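During the first year of the project, the team set up a workflow for recording each protein of interest as an amino acid sequence followed immediately by a discrete structure-token representation. This format lets reviewers and collaborators read both layers of information side by side without switching files. As required by the reporting guidelines, we include two representative entries from the current panel. The first entry is reproduced here exactly as it appears in our internal archive.
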Amino acid sequence: MIYDIRQTTTYAYASKVAYAHHALHLTPVNRPRQRVHAVALEISPVPVERRDSVDFFGNHVTRIGLEEAHDSLSIKVVARVAVEAPPHPDPDATPAWEAVRADAVMGSYLGPDSPAHFLFPSRQVFLDPAITDYARQSFAPGRPVFAGAADLMNRIKADFTYEIGSTDVATSPSQAFAQRSGVCQDFAHIMIAGLRGLGLPAAYVSGYLRTVPREGQARLEGSDAMHAWTMAWCGPEAGWCGFDPTNALLVGDDHVFLALGRDYADVAPIAGIFFASGGQHLEVAVDVIPVDPAAARTV
């Protein structure tokens, strides 16, 4: 599946910003089963400093400095990305979750995709006994790990309400879990906290969903904004598998991968500092449109 992606992020400030420095995770990169055909990042006002790099987990990071006084900031991303759906393992053929937990702890590999980096509490995901107990209901002794993770994903979709405005980017998994509502970031964090509480590696992914639903299917939750989901390590053979608890959907070619980290803090679309007084207003518009294959060949 090939998509044209357009995202516009606009900040309006209550007063002039004298100086700002931001780190952006807004540029998709090539990954297994995903290829970036073209991408452009337009920033207004134009930064006096811009530096592009790749972080430890393979994410593209753009760091910008703004010294011109401004009362708004506009960041536009335009990209064409080809996505291939991953093959999902037979859920019952994956190892028992206890065996996966043992393999994760005993492994000596420490590369970017090592499960060791995703086992422990992180800046925005700490271990909560209530969330661990909730996750444990999906992992009976000896249950295959993929089957348990899929069951946990489905239960989060069934038990929690998708409600824009009920949380913000600083809401903890415990808060969202207690109120049984939130958005995709919260549901991904809750699933991660539950898996890690059981000793299972889990990562946070930011990205996009196709805007236009497939024929005969309902529009996916989170398709009009940036999206988030969970990657769970399902053992050495199955590796990392994607689970979207917001939609109770295994990650496939409806999902475009943007950045991966231990939680939202690692891959925040825009993070940094600015010097000003007063508040700010944020607007984000996202379109992820399937491209006709014949048109895609002209790029």
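The second entry, processed by the same pipeline in the following quarter, appears below.
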Amino acid sequence: MTRFTRRSMLTGAAIAGTASALAPLALRAPAQAAAPAAGKQAPGFYRYKVGDFEVTAFNDGYVKVPKLESFVVNQPLDAIQKALDEAYIPKDDVRVPFNPLLVNTGGKLVLFDCGFGDNGSPVQGALLANLAAAGVDPKSIDTIIISHFHGDHISGIRAKAGAANFPNAQIMVPAGEWSYWNDAGELSKAPEVWKGAFGGVKRVFDPIAKDVTRFEFGKELVPGITSVDARGHSPGHSAFVIASGNAKLMYIADVTNHPILFARNPEWRLWADMIPDQALTTRRKLLDMAAADRLPITGYHYPFPAVGYIAKLGNGYDFVPANWQSVF
């Protein structure tokens, strides 16, 4: 029986190396050129289960924060930079993603929020391409549920040229959002930063106004999906509980923006929180509930695939990503 010792293995390796070095050049395998870089990310979709429901997170792209002190409007720049540094996020490259959510209930194919479509910048509007990569035909979507009327949530309902991107979908919106954004009196009082958003609402919804379904908070919109009062970020902002059997997921939409900044520091004010005090009250209420009940959540602006748990962290909250589901 052959005995392998450290000495014999080293001797064998030396002999093999010498033989390789003395081999004729013609017999040596040619070096292979490195493959060219792909130059783009893999398709942005991720599937997981909530009870019997199949949930798919999609990425629609991102926005790069141009000026931190204009993004978090009630904190000094050094405090914002410190929070980013502690989370290993480059202070000059803060990216906020957009993550629409698709739920297959078995009876309905439901899309929450629609991203930008072709109405955004070159790094936005990836939802349709990612739907195609995931094998989802936009014509097969039965229901679109909108959390609120900010442009990154509604613009993708309609292409820039005017066509409906999801032609067979029933569109459901919070009644409070509909009332606010279609009120000429509110437009006249709105800060300048929001006046353009009223035009975006008109572009998207005017052609289909008679067919849009408006819902109140606390209502089951389709079997297993219930709206939750989440006002503050906008006047009619809604979150949603998605339930199948004993399993639940809460889609919090924009209750917080990026969790490193606005979950860990819930009193920090996002520039886009239209009713700041109410936004803070809602944020604490829903995050407290998620933490106490160990309820999985997904957030529209959370790092993709944007699903996980909320844990108490001092005076704030930490986002704990869920384990990756590779097999159902």
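For the second entry, the following points were noted during internal review. Confidence is low (pLDDT under 50) at residues 4-27. The chain is about 30% helix and 25% strand. Both points are flagged for discussion at the upcoming steering committee meeting.
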